[in-house]
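Lab notebook: predicted structure, single chain.

Context: the supervisor wants predicted structures on file for every construct in the current expression panel, including those that have not yet been purified. This is the next one on the list. No modifications to the sequence; it matches the entry in the shared construct table.
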Amino acid sequence: MRTRISVLSIFLVAMLLLLSEGFAIIVVYRDGSTLEGTIEDSNSNYVVLNTTLGKIQIPVSNIRSIVFKNGTIPQSGQEFSLSGKRYRGYVTELSKDYAVVTTWFGKIKINLKSDSVDFLGFEKAELPGITSESFFQVELVLNDYYICSLINGEMIVGLELNTSGDYIAVVDSYKNTFFILKGALEYIYIPYKYAKSYDLVVLNTGRKLYGVVKKFSDTQYEISGQWGKVVVNQNDIVFSTYKETKEQPSQIVQYVQPAQQTTKVESTATLIEKAIYDKDGVATIVADVPVKVEGKEVRKINIYPKEIVDPRTGVTFVLVPGGVFKMGADASWRNVEEDELPQREVYVSSFYISKYPVTVKQYLDFLKASQTGASIIVGKQINPVEIDFLGQKVRVSYSAPGDLLNVPITGINYASAKAYCDWAGYQLPTEAQWEKAARGTDGRRYPWGNESQTKYNDGRRDYPVDEFENVDISPYGVVNTYGYPIELCRDYYAKDAYKKLPKENPLNTTGTYVVGRAGAVAGRITDRIPLTPSESRNDVTFRVVMDAEEAFNIIKKPLNNKLLGITWFVVNENVKKQYNVKSEGLYVAFVETGSPAQLAGIKTGDVIVKIDGKTVKSFDDALKALSGKKQGDISILTIDRGGKVIEIKVRLGIWLF
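Prediction complete. Output recorded below exactly as produced.
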């Protein structure tokens, strides 16, 4: 009997050693049967599996899927999963160290030795064709990650980026390489620190590119970067920060439309060519004669882009130039309220205003990432996300239906709108800013003119913010100011505001109610609506503004984000028993999508035992370890993951929206 036990023990130990040489996987055959083992060898023709029955060579043509992690076996062999994210596609090349999968946007070379692979499919799938022609835009970001935004809204994040033929190659933290067809890309975001020699070029199609600019011919320029290179015609450039040497005088003129060569444009171009760069984005022009605009001599010309996108939040802004406009209703209009009178000329300084109301997606990002209190109203379209922890429901995040992400956020109040602004460095528009942005300077009744129309947001359902951009649009390109929802302004309401406030940048800072604005309520853009600040209404939204002089400084500042984006609990006896935890520390119960923790690879079920070498067994320990840390700093978290201790570097406060 002893001999039998000894032989059996030796056999079991031998099998354990055999299985430990590779990584345990499950092969799913095309008939649905499965086989467990470890991969000893593999190529595009077969997979050699070590099993309890010995080595088995399986033709790839017989395999539907290979599952690398415990979990649900995929029902289809036409998909694969990396780090919990599923893609439609299939394996086209296989070796012991890597697999190449084909998917709709290109292909991925997957590092099989990493911990990122959930499962791979081997059945060929029909995939949509993507053009090789590229139309993507290039933007800059403050974090250290390269971000590729695809035309379907998917995001691919990596630590390295380069070009490879028709592809943009992105390498992620697991050493997986994503080869993305250029035609599948909408935006490429490049870290500022890798773009120090880049200039900005804006084309007349609206396409923006950051790269190294060189003169290609008398009429063309080459723009190149890690993303590749393009050659563009000089006449297609409407703006560039590029400036050539005097030996090679540039014909690129800042913010001068090239379409029509009039005397005025040529004289402006001549002046700009005489510009001498000073510093900090300032240039000096030595003029031979006084420069006049609208018959008035000027000594300073401010040059601003017509439209900018804040890379932190995704909010698109349009410029409203400073100057005088007619504010208030025309007394000859019918049914005008007393609080809209008298009509008068008011001056406002140049500012940027969001082209659309803040969307559900943009507000949802704020709720997830910001360091806000529980008093913030979540909005009509947004739902809390709860998890079950030790038998209790715990709110950990927020979500919204995908078809509502691009509609205006509603069901919020003044304090919540202001909290969003504080998070991003924006402000609510003053009433004067809102009205000028909505109607221009000439005192018109509607954003589009003085003739009524029926196509606008009637408030009967949630419309996308760009639904009416061809009809309800102001002279400055601001969309949906006439239609619902009602929009919050910064001013407090006063019935006699137009009689007592100054005519330059007016703002009323005291009162019981705040001002709401929308034209559709009364049939004119000048209507003023008093709102209770604390009340959340399903017909109220907001948009945001930035001072034109400060805009580029604001969008470079970090958002007031949570440093990690984790819901964690102190490990106690109940946690140890319920979740099979051995270590003392903080148990990760939830990791927010797009958070610094998720981007770094932290997972639900991890136990954080140290932060920057300091042992953490309580929330107080964690707060002390992170004390003094700011957004962008690197912290090293020591993690117990299923009994294996690993270290993960986290870039604090940097979120991917």
